[in-house]
Amino acid sequence: MAMLDGNAIAGTLRTVFGDEVTAADGTCAHCGATGPLAEVHVYVDAPGIVGRCSHCEGVLMVIVDKRGVSCVDVSGFSALSLPGTVTLG
Length: 89
What we know:
Helix content: under 10%
Number of strands: 9
Number of helices: 1
Order of helices and strands: EHEEEEEEEE
């Protein structure tokens, strides 16, 4: 599988979150590393989109489209700070 960065799914993230979020900071629940979503290692060849931590390769997020509905799991983040909003986590 080819690894991309978070910028490769900017359009999908905009659809899911309703805004540009590649500059948002996320904290990995596995290793505690913090960085922008643009630096997440992304794999799009899986059944859906899988985002992994660029430090430990722990799974941060999974986005799957099922019959036109985006199913999103961001449980790999212990915190997610979206620009202009409060921190989730």
